[in-house]
Amino acid sequence: MMLSGRCLCGDVAFEVHGTPRGVSACHCGQCRKQSGHVWASAYVPEADLTITGTPSWYEASGTAKRGFCPRCGSFLFWKARDEDTISFALGALDLPTSLTLQKHIFCEDKGDYYDIEDDLPQLARS
């Protein structure tokens, strides 16, 4: 499988080689604040993601950093410090993706202004 995506302005683009895993919607407070709502993503081994352009990285915590376009601000990547995988934003992908949301994560932190109304698994954490 090969997927491609880019930020809103096009300065940062990426290609995904291989099969994405963990297709999920994250409801944690950090994702809500950075994306403005829920952040949908999947992950692949770092070797399966090619980034063109230079994202800026924000050290969001002691365990992970978040990558975004320095020009338009699109939130594109999430990378745990001690893992060899990287998550990418589903909303930045070119269509069609052939991906299907599998679960909701960090549901205990979700905003109080919406409900999760599908039948997918809802994990309190990840």
Automatic annotation (TrEMBL):
Transmembrane region(s): none
Keyword Metal-binding carried by entry: yes
Family annotation (InterPro entries): CENP-V/GFA (IPR006913), Mss4-like_sf (IPR011057)
Highest taxon of the lineage: Bacteria
SUPFAM superfamilies documented for this protein: Mss4-like (SSF51316)
MF terms in GO: carbon-sulfur lyase activity; metal ion binding
Domain CENP-V/GFA positions: 3-115
UniProt KW Metal-binding keyword: yes
Keyword terms: Lyase, Metal-binding, Zinc
Cross-referenced PROSITE patterns: CENP_V_GFA
Similarity-based family: Belongs to the Gfa family.
UniProt-recorded name of the protein: Uncharacterized conserved protein
